[in-house]
Amino acid sequence: MRRPSPQTLIALILTAVWGLGLGIAHLHGDIPVVDAAEATLTNLRNSFGGSRQPPDLVTIVAIDDDTSRLAGRYPLPRATLARIIDSIAALGPKTIALDVILVDPGDEAGDAALEQSLRRTKVVLAAAGIFPESRQRVVDDSREPLARVPSALQFLEPQQRFADVAAFGIVNVQTDKTGTPRFVPMLFRSGERIEPSFSLRVVSAATGEQTTVISDHIKIGDRSVHTDSGYLMPLSFYGPRGTIRTISASTALNGQLPEEAIRDHVVVIGATVTGGGDVFPTPFDPVLPGAEVISTSITHLIAGDGLVRDRGVRFMDLYFAVGLPVAIVGLLCWRHNTIGLATALCVVLAWLAINIAAFKHGIWLSAALPIAAAVPPVLFCGAAQLWLGRRQATRFAEQSERLQRIQAPGLAEHLARDAGLLAKPVHQEAAVIFLDINGFTGLSEAIGPAAVRELLNTFYNLVDEEVTACGGAITSFMGDGVMILFGLPRPQPADSADAARCCIRLAGRMRGWIASLPEAIASRIGFKIGAHFGTIVASRLGSGNRQQITATGDTVNVASRLMEVAAGNRAEIAISDDLLLSAGGDSTPFQEGSLDGPIETSLRGRAGSLAVWLWRSRP
Q1: Could you write out the three-class secondary structure of 446-505?
Q2: β-strand 187-190 against 181-185: which pairing, if any?
Q3: 19 vs 8: CA distance, rounded Å
Q4: Pairing relationship of beta strands 573-576 and 609-616 according to DSSP bridges
Q5: How high is the pLDDT of residue 402?
Q6: pLDDT digits 0-9 by tens, 504-562
Q7: Share of the chain above pLDDT 90, in %
Q8: Residue 139 to residues 143, 318, 478: CA-CA distances in angstroms?
Q9: Residue 269 has pLDDT above 90, yes or no
Q10: Closest by alpha carbon to 12, among 378, 363, 302, 434?
């Protein structure tokens, strides 16, 4: 397998650096553009997974339109709220979570009644943080874990008389730009003060277990809560509104609460009245009540069935941000482009399957981060390959055009004088020589196109020099081979002798050229020459401005087959007896080197045999 080119290595290094940079930024917090895309992709994965049945742990008692009509107004009178709490408490819940912020005082009788209800049962009250932006951001880059907790300007707390008899927690959730709740912070800060979230306080009250803050996670009793940076717990919604069991608070006022829905459950009292309660868009419902968002987070904390997105998962995101684009770019830069493209597609599909499967099993691997890491390098790589491909195609076209101009060197003068030369086929006597380089196909695969071009240019030049010096005409170069004619445009008495002399001169030049090449190249190639004399059909082939002078006929075929005879007998040249008889006994092959023959030889594809002479140079 060939080593990757420097351009490929540079592309892979730049891709890895880009992915690593995004991954490190992802480790340290949010990347707004990536997170916006991640929100959309998370909604798609939630929708793909569909709704699921939540554990039977939480019941919502909703202050809805029926409740407000029964109470006569909204917000509910404090005395009415006290009655609802008392009705629920009578059925033995684990705890009651009152998702109503009791900031302002009511009438004294109602406040007193509510205070007494809070004293009699275990209730957690809601408080809220006021932030400078609607979305809580972490601006402190300190490595102290608590420094990354969402920082509020101040807390809106329940009245002191209620806070003295009941615990409270901060009820805020963290949303994305679409308003969809993505996280519930477990801790909040305002100045030097740290307060737990409403959900965390409710679960601690329901289980009777202490909450412990560790450097990178939170423990409730012996259970660890997986949190993201800043102690944020990801939300994974169960379905549309009503998926978590919801009962109207009017049933509490009418004494019709179902005991099985209250006993040993966490009961969340929250507002769903039209125009009076918080609602949020989610993947399953455009108006999910805030009470159900809070109930979802409470269920996650108790059941441990939420999404896991902690530092370990973010490190996995970093690995994918580096590995996925590097794999894709590496495959696209592979020399087998079709195979590379298909394999890259398989890699993307495999990553997508892993991402969806992990999400389905509660591990929130980022989908947007690897895409953001892969798309720019892939587009750049594709554009670069397209540019290089067009540049290479242009270069090959120019080379092809130049090579196509080398048609029948030696005949240019005749063609200039007679534009109709060989416009019609002619039969005449001629000597035909074929020269071919042995082993060149395998060599060209090893040394690359630039070295191949250089070798062929040198080969063509030396052949052209010797053929021109001997008075012949090159009718075509065929890659690493050449066809030469002696007898165009008209036969001459010396054609056979000139052809015989040209064969010997070509052999000498080829030996010297190959010997001058590096050993790694010279050891892999050789040459073979075949020459014959007889009748040919000379003509022009092609039409318009793409014409080529060539020769056909049995003489041409025999000359071509004689190269095989030379190679098979370890000779440099195989010359037919017809050519040597026409050239005469004083021709060059008889004067130089070693000439053996004539030998009766069968030729491939031809009936009968032919008398052939084998010529070798003397050591």
Answers
A1: HHCHHHHHHHHHHHHHHHHHHHHHHCCEEEEEECCEEEEEECCCCCCCCHHHHHHHHHHH
A2: unpaired
A3: 16
A4: antiparallel
A5: 47
A6: 999 999 999 999 988 888 888 889 999 999 998 887 766 555 566 778 888 999 999 99
A7: 50
A8: 12, 22, 71
A9: yes
A10: 378
Distance CA 214, CA 290 (A): 28
Say how many residues make up the chain.
Answer: 619
Radius of gyration from C-alpha coordinates of the chain? 45
Q: What sections of 211-336 are H helices per DSSP?
A: 250-253, 259-262, 290-303, 311-332
User: What is the per-residue pLDDT for 31?
Assistant: 81
State the pairing for strand pair 223-225/218-220.
antiparallel
Fill in the amino acid letter for 186: M
How confident is residue 438, by pLDDT bands cut at 50, 70 and 90? confident
Angle at 233 between CA 229 and CA 236, to 5 degrees: 130
Strand partners, 238: none
Cis omega before residue 489 (within 30°)? Answer: yes
Task: Characterize the bridge pairing of strands 167-170 and 123-130.
Answer: parallel
More confident residue, 223 or 80: 80
CB 168 within 8 A of CB 125: yes
Residues 487 and 499: their CA atoms lie apart, in Å, by 9
Q: Report d(CA 598, CA 592) in Å as an integer.
A: 17
CA distance 399 to 456: 12
Residues contacting 557, CB < 8 A, separation 6+: 605, 606
Query: Taking the mean position of all CA atoms in its chain, how far away is CA 565?
Result: 54
- What residues have CB less than 8 Å from 307, skipping those under 6 apart? 234, 235, 236, 359, 362, 363, 364
Q: Which helix (H) or strand (E) segment is 556 a member of?
A: helix 554-568
CA distance 605 to 561: 9
Residue 138 has pLDDT above 50, yes or no: no
User: In the chain, what percentage of residues exceed pLDDT 70?
Assistant: 90
